[in-house]
């Protein structure tokens, strides 16, 4: 086509000479028409990328099996290498864990063995009669202690025996005392079969008086030994139960007949006073009962001095051996008794029961604790001699059947 030779100015002049044309359409129609054409152009522009994406997807589907086989081979090879590494690492970790577990088990085993050895040693110490014999505060733990005076087989002395029973807040101490009498095992403990008492017992706490109603055929009045043991057992047992008096009856009638004393209507419970504890040995027994002597002492010095001597008539033996040499005693009632030993005095395990006798004697004198000075050893049985030692609750702990 031949290029036009008209200039822009000539073309502009020719357009001005042309007739005017007026568009009768609504402007909104013109806008809708133009907008639809623009939208079509936009769709046409986006159609090509969509077709390209579809083609790529189709190509991927065609080539996928080959690609997957190749990728799987590569991945399998990589996983095998990784698996070998992981297995080696896991084996090492497992071995480490097992080794640590074995070490822990071994440590636990040795620790348990050590505990077992300690327990065995304690058990052996108990079997060797090196254990304490009294009741201490830690023995209670929600329980209560009841002490019964039981005659020895020869009816020479009454021996205080203490049993620990579960505390029953629904019962009074007196009711507990009555209920527990049937469970005592005196003969098994080498003592006279004395309980339960052959009497109907009742207690009036308002006047602190026990009523003991004996049957007509009671045996307590036959022979002086029986009579003495009956009175002694009643006095020493009920003094622990806040009783001041025992009224005796026979078949509901006032008084009870005793061969050497005649008719007795009342037994007064006296304050035992300051007592010293001695040893009482049963035949073939190396563990002594700790028994208070009937005599009272004004000072604890006098009591300890007396405890170095035997009392043949009552069968009581010295409870303080020559090896325990006391230099000085100091302290006031209600506080701590300080026992200062002479230089060179060493408390050994075979003195444990002697030490308990000294503690019980200190308790009888109203002391609350004992401090030992100059023992040349740190411990004696369960006692730490570097600290104040709390006094026992009661002597001669024994077990009963529930």
What's the shape? flat
pLDDT averaged over residues: 78
Oligomeric state of the chains present here: single chain
Please describe the biggest sheet, giving its number of strands, its sense, and whether it closes into a barrel: 5 strands, mixed
* Poorly predicted regions: 34-129
Q: Tell me the β content.
A: 15-25%
**DSSP helical segment count:** 7
* Strands, count: 17
* Radius of gyration (Å): 52 Å
Q: Roughly what percent helix? A: 25-40%
Q: What pattern of helices and strands is seen along the backbone?
A: HHHEEHEEHEEEEEEEHEEHEEEE
Number of individual domains: 3
Structural class: alpha+beta
Q: First CA to last CA: what distance?
A: 133 Å
Notable traits:
single chain, 402 residues, alpha+beta, 3 domains, 5-stranded mixed β-sheet, 4-stranded mixed β-sheet, 7 helices, 17 strands, 39% helix
What's the short version?
The chain is of the alpha+beta class and 402 residues long. The chain has helices at 8-16, 27-127, 137-140, 173-180, 224-238, 300-306, 352-364, and strands at 143-151, 158-166, 200-204, 209-214, 245-250, 253-254, 256-258, 262-264, 266-268, 277-280, 289-292, 326-330, 336-341, 369-373, 379-380, 383-384, 389-390.
């Amino acid at each position: 086509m031949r290029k036009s030779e008209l200039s822009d100015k000539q073309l502009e002049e020719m357009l001005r000479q042309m007739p005017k044309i007026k568009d009768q359409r609504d402007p909104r129609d013109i806008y809708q028409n133009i907008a639809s054409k623009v939208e079509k152009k936009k769709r046409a522009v986006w159609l090509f990328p969509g077709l390209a994406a579809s083609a790529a997807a189709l190509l991927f589907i065609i080539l996928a099996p080959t690609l997957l086989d190749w990728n799987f081979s590569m991945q399998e090879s990589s996983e095998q290498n990784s698996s070998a590494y992981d297995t080696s690492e896991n084996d090492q970790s497992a071995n480490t864990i097992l080794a640590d577990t074995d070490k822990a088990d071994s440590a636990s085993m040795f620790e348990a063995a050590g505990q077992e050895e300690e327990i065995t040693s304690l058990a052996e110490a108990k079997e060797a009669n090196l254990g304490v014999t009294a009741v201490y505060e830690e023995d209670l733990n929600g329980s209560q202690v009841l002490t019964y005076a039981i005659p020895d087989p020869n009816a020479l002395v009454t021996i205080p025996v203490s049993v620990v029973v579960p505390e029953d807040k629904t019962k009074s101490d007196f009711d507990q005392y009555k209920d527990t009498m049937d469970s005592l095992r005196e003969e098994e403990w080498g003592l006279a079969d004395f309980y339960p008492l052959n009497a109907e017992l009742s207690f009036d706490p308002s006047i602190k008086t026990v009523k003991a109603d004996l049957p007509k055929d009671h045996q307590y009045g036959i022979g002086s030994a029986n009579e003495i043991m009956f009175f002694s057992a009643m006095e020493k047992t009920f003094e622990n139960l806040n009783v001041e008096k025992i009224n005796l009856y026979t078949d509901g009638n006032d008084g009870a007949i005793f061969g050497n004393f005649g008719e007795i209507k009342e037994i007064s419970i006296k304050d035992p006073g300051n007592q010293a504890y001695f040893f009482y040995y049963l035949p073939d027994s190396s563990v002594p009962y700790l028994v208070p002597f009937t005599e009272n002492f004004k000072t604890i010095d006098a009591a300890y001095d007396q405890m170095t001597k035997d009392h043949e008539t009552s069968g009581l033996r010295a409870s303080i051996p020559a090896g325990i040499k006391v230099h000085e005693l100091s302290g006031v009632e209600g506080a701590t008794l300080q026992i200062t030993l002479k230089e060179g005095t060493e408390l050994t395990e075979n003195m444990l029961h002697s030490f308990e006798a000294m503690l019980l004697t200190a308790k009888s004198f109203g002391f609350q604790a004992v401090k030992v000075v100059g023992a040349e050893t740190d411990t004696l049985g369960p006692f730490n001699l570097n600290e104040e030692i709390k006094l026992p609750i009661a002597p001669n702990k024994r077990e009963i059947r529930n």
